[in-house]
Amino acid sequence: MLKELIGIKFSEMNNCHIEEIMAFDKINISKKVVFVTKDYKIESQIIFRDSLGKYNISDDTTLFNSYFDLLGFLNTGKLIQK
Fold first, then answer.
1. Which residue in 17, 28, 73, 80 has the fewest CB atoms around it within 10 Å?
2. Higher pLDDT, 24 or 75
3. Exposure on the CB side of residue 51, measured as CA atoms within 13 A
């Protein structure tokens, strides 16, 4: 039950590799999101268009609202890219 209430986030930052992104996507929690710099074809991704091709997101803390609705995600579990 607790895992249905929790939302977790991961970002393509600090020189993370595709292996970490894929491992995060496999975590058995329904409300998860990974901010990425390109399309990895995974369900939990939100692409930061300002970071396309840069291999690193410089600031996910202040920019995430530009790309998806956090409250909608936490309430419904649905990831919708803006």
1. 28
2. 24
3. 21
